[in-house]
Specification:
By secondary structure, this protein is an alpha+beta fold. The protein has 17 helices and 7 strands. A hairpin with a 4-residue loop joins strand 3 and strand 4. Helix 5 packs across helix 6 and helix 11 packs across helix 14. The longest helix has about 30 residues. The protein starts with 5 loop residues before the first helix and ends in a 14-residue tail after the last helix. About 15% of the residues are buried. The C terminus is likely disordered.
């Protein structure tokens, strides 16, 4: 028995097959398999990559990396920094990371590139980027410049280009970087920035060998220990400036559990109290200088106060006592306080006469049985002139006797 076939059964005529048309997904997959990089580079860059590939004096790995650098560098600024990541350069050179570093060594040994030292980030202390720069020799070999420049001009051009790029990187991005932008938009409101200058009370640390950045770091360490660096320096400055190793000594003080802020507050309070006492003493002396050689009386009219020459002495007359008393001790603040409070005032002539009459009445002897009435000799009020004369006489007597307790405090003399 024969198996029916198309040619035998003539089924290709009766039942024709539909042609197989490829779908859109199949075409897209086939197109993506042959897709390539669509970056449009200037003709100068293509020529530079071609020259780098045919640099026979270099090893093959160095030529591949030089071609990758030629495709990445800015054609308008060939001496500027090459903004490219290691992953991009290793991908374009089709090298591993170890081969990439060996190729960098070959290019640097040939004098075609300059590797800048790696810098640290200011906030975290981590290592940052290390940019590459083409030398004058490399730009001439790659055809990026028309003539070879001298070494001084090349270095100056490299520095100018680097400074210009650093200045423009914060203002606007570069549209010619093949790898895209690696800059960031810096917002001063959210950035942590340290002050540009050292605080005024910490500038004296600079004379002890402290660097500005070290002072800022010590301020942060003091804050971690709940202290203020200004308080620690102020409280221990006399010992700190005499220390052989002031940096180590200051860090030890920051770790100690001593409350230097309390010491500073106590010292400031003592200084403020001494300042107030000094001002009060000056005010008292000025008040007594104005009150010198004057007579005062209290509000009740029971006491009469005489201030001596220059305000150095005070004599108190009581209406119930026959002898006057010379004030001793620290009487000046009490007198000024009473004068300011209004408890005593400047005596007039009427006040002096009224006080003398009241004194005579109190000192007059009473008439009793078996006793004869004594005639009261009227006493005269001691004037400032009499008081000053008595003070001079007592001073002369004290100097003559050589001891102050030989003369009584009050001497009554007849006018």
């Amino acid at each position: 028995m024969l198996i029916a076939q198309l040619s035998v059964a003539s089924e290709d005529v009766d039942r024709p097959r539909l042609p197989e048309t490829p779908t859109a997904e199949t075409d897209q997959d086939a197109l993506e398999e042959f897709a390539c990089e669509r970056s449009n580079l200037p003709w100068v860059i293509f020529r530079a990559a071609h020259r780098a590939t045919h640099a026979t004096a270099l090893p093959a790995r160095a030529r591949a990396l030089l071609a990758a650098l030629a495709r990445t560098v800015d054609a308008n600024r060939p001496y500027a920094a090459i903004f490219a990541r290691r992953e991009l350069l290793t991908g374009r050179a089709m090298q591993s990371m170890r081969t990439f570093y060996r190729s960098l060594g070959d290019l640097e040994a040939a004098g075609l590139i300059v590797r800048q030292p790696q810098k640290r980030h200011g906030d975290a202390g981590l290592f940052g980027r290390a940019y590459l720069h083409l030398t004058d020799k490399a730009t001439f070999v790659l055809g990026l410049v028309e003539r070879q420049m001298t070494a001084d001009n090349a270095s100056a051009t490299t520095r100018d280009s680097a400074n210009t790029q650093a200045a423009l990187s914060l203002s606007r991005p570069s549209a010619t970087v093949a790898d895209g932008a690696i800059y960031k938009d810096l917002d001063p409101k959210i950035q942590k920035r340290q002050s540009g200058t050292v605080p005024g009370d910490l500038t004296r640390l600079l004379n002890l060998g402290f660097h500005e950045f070290l002072i800022f770091k010590l301020m942060r360490e003091a804050k971690l220990h709940s202290k203020m660096l200004s308080d620690v320096v102020e409280a221990t400055w006399e010992h700190l400036r005499k220390a052989e190793r002031p940096i180590n000594y200051l860090r030890t003080l920051l770790r100690s559990p001593v409350d230097f802020g309390h010491q500073i507050r106590v010292k400031q309070a003592s200084a403020e109290r001494a300042r107030r006492e000094h001002l009060d003493a000056i005010e008292i002396e000025q008040t007594l200088a104005r009150c010198a050689d004057q007579i005062f009386i209290d509000i009740a009219g029971q006491r009469q106060i005489v201030i001596g020459e220059g305000g150095t002495s005070m004599t108190v007359h009581d209406s119930s006592e026959s002898a006057a008393r010379l004030a001793a001790g620290n009487w000046k603040p009490a007198f000024v306080a009473a004068l300011n409070a209004g408890r005593i005032r400047l005596a007039t002539v009427e006040d002096q006469e009224a006080f003398a009459a009241r004194r005579r009445e109190r000192l007059a002897p009473s008439t009793g049985s078996g006793r004869s009435a004594l005639k009261l000799v009227p006493s005269r009020v001691r004037t400032p002139e009499i008081h000053n004369r008595l003070a001079q006489m007592k001073q002369l007597l004290r100097n003559a006797e050589g001891r102050a307790d030989a003369i009584p405090d009050a001497i009554e003399t007849a006018p």
